[in-house]
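Try it yourself: sequence plus farnesyl diphosphate, in.
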Amino acid sequence: MITENILVLSEEEIKEKILQKGNIPKHIAIIMDGNGRWAQKRGLPRSAGHQAGVKTVKRVVQAAGEIKVSILTLFTFSTENWERPKSEVAAIMKLLYDATRQEMKELEEKNVRLITTGRIDQLSFQRRNILKKAISRTKNNTGLVLNLALNYSGRMEIIDAVKKLAQDVKNNKIKSGQIDEKLFHDYLYTDGLPDPDLLIRTSGEMRLSNFLLWQAAYTELYVTEVLWPDFSEKDFYLAIWDYQTRERRFGKV
Ligand code: FPP
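Structure, out:
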């Protein structure tokens, strides 16, 4: 729980405290929500909110790297987001393209490895290409893994896994009796990644919105009222501080 005493501390002081505690979450997932409302409050187009959101992405990637988070998964574009007005979808896609192109060098230098989760094959050729380039350029990096969930839907991920699994059973690659949680996990888009320890959602909504449905089974949830473009390093460290005060029981006593 966030108390008054912690709120008065500076960003640096909170950072120090969470580092002292030691149990920094290995994998943090974030639902970056509130860009539209942030823009609306300022009488700006929604795209301006997404643009400001990219600056927050940079801040949070830097902060996560500094405290040695292993994996940061950002819900960047859901399959449902295609239903937004064409101009907004185009603006988000352009931001994604521009940011990937502009930040590639810095990601490479700062030892960040870029990966994606979702149906990337349904993005345009140009966008897929720039992502592939950044993924390839950073593939040997050993620091923070930055995982962009793109054209992602949790239910679709489970359906895709079931389809692949059914095919492998049909082709006698595996027997149905072998199917367990561990094996199923290997069929998900996130194959190879540990489940998130902490899931942060900005802008106050209390739902998962089809994000990491399988993987978030025992993830600690943290919701803040702060809108994504306003989400600061201090807010990020506060979320971790809150996580560190929890007792994770994984269904046991
Ligand atoms: C949610 O806010 C935000 C999105 C759907 C898009 C997030 C995308 C970015 C921040 C740009 C991504 C770029 C990189 C490089 C990762 P909302 O529009 O749902 O806000 P609202 O709920 O207030 O309307």
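One thing you can check immediately is this: The mean pLDDT is 96.
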